[in-house]
Write a structure and sequence with these properties.
Blueprint: E1 5-9, H1 12-30, E2 35-36, H2 48-57, E3 59-66, H3 86-96, E4 100-106, E5 130-132, H4 137-150, H5 164-196, E6 233-235, E7 243-252, E8 258-264
Helix pairs in contact: 1-4, 2-3
């Protein structure tokens, strides 16, 4: 697979803050794994030329962040002419490997002039520069990112979003389910209401339970209650039948005749 990383070269004393800000902006689009910087943190004992070559082998683009002090502080001369200068070694190695090198101008710095560059960096003066201004930083970084993508740097994959149609289907299904539940509840409620309005069925004419004394029950004791024809009846509410009957007793009355008592028919 072809290299697609981004190597950010910068001088710490010149544009460390701008380089970090640029790296953060590019990481959102290309991912942290494709951004390489801070080669100055190479462990002691490691050949720095080999370390730079290894980092560049994974990159297709180098961004050279250039501020007002990129060549060095006033009074110390042009550091780019020092054979062991980190920036010179990085940029020279990238130019030698035909890596796309883009000067990135920050803090109002001008592009480097051919006369200010050592022989192995003179090609840098012929590279089209990209300016990052504080006033429109986000826009300038987006434009730079678009240019990097056109050179083959792979952006992060865009997360797949569920189609809106599936959301609509789920919403409609949910609404349909609610409507079905409401219809079932309504049908049950209506059935209960209909049951509560069913006219009462006529009560069948059941035989009235007898109230009073049963047949043969004595209503009075045997005695001489005056003359009466045996078997004579009269209404008596104490009897279930509503009628009492004169029944003879075995004892005789002093004046003659048998004693009698009343019983229910």
């Amino acid at each position: 697979m072809a290299a697609s990383g981004i190597f950010i070269s910068y001088r710490r004393q010149d544009a460390q803050s701008a380089a970090g800000r640029l790296a953060d902006g590019l990481e959102h689009r290309f991912g942290k794994a494709q951004i390489f910087r801070d080669v100055e943190t190479i462990q002691p004992g490691v050949d720095f030329v080999e370390a730079i070559e290894k980092a560049l082998s994974a990159c297709s683009v180098m961004l050279v962040v250039i501020g007002q002090r990129w060549m060095g502080d006033a009074g110390e001369g042009n550091r780019l002419h020092q054979a062991n200068d980190w920036i010179r070694l990085e940029v020279a190695a990238a130019l030698k490997r035909n890596v796309r090198v883009i000067p990135v101008l920050v803090e109002g710095a001008p592009p480097p002039a051919d006369a200010d560059l050592p022989e192995d960096l003179k090609a840098l003066a012929r590279r089209q520069a990209h300016t990052l201004s504080d006033e429109r930083w986000d826009y300038d970084v987006q434009q730079l990112a678009a240019a990097l993508e056109s050179t083959g740097v792979r952006p992060l994959p865009v997360p797949k979003q569920k189609p809106k149609s599936s959301r609509l289907v789920k919403t409609l299904a949910w609404i349909g389910g609610v409507m079905v539940v409401l219809m079932v509840v309504g049908a049950v409620t209506e059935g209960l209401n209909q049951d509560s309005h069913v006219p009462n069925s006529p009560v069948p004419n059941l035989p009235k339970r007898a109230v009073g004394l049963p047949s043969g029950t004595p209503i009075s004791a045997c005695g001489c209650w005056g003359y009466v024809n045996p078997g004579a009846t009269r209404p008596n509410p104490k009897c279930a039948s509503g009628t009492g009957v004169a029944a003879p007793c075995p004892a005789l009355c002093p004046g003659g005749g048998y004693q009698w008592q009343e019983k229910c028919i």
